[in-house]
Amino acid sequence: MTWFQQTIELPPFKRGFHPITREIVSALPELGSIHIGLMHVFLQHTSASLSINENADPDVPLDLESSLSAIAPESFPHRHTCEGPDDMPAHVKTSLLGSSLTIPIQDGRLGLGTWQGIYLGEHRNHGGRRRLIVTVQGE
Q1: What is the pTM of this model?
Q2: Fewer CB near the terminus (10 Å): N or C of the chain?
Q3: Are 58 and 118 in contact (CB under 8 A)?
Q4: How confident is the model over 18-46, as pLDDT tens digits?
């Protein structure tokens, strides 16, 4: 059984959903040696999220952003406002989507479906750099 862990720092992204599958895979050359296993990705932030979704149609990330903004609008009378009007809605969106993913590894590759990709949901207008802790277990 093999274990390894890597911290990946992503550059700042604008608000919205951004595909990050390539960034994760390119930071983990060890994946190629795993025949069967699991990859766990944990985002160390409370105002961004991780999601697996369709990565073929560029309208999907735009629709995800507009849908979540309708569910958690900045105009809602939040109590937690000391970090700006986009902060509490970002926490709500993160709570809905989550901050971690577990993906199977099959023959040295992520076991994602044909149209699936990993997305970072940046829920702040200016979120800054984001850190992922990626842990792989397999043989």
Answers
A1: 0.95
A2: N
A3: no
A4: 999 999 999 999 999 999 999 999 999 99
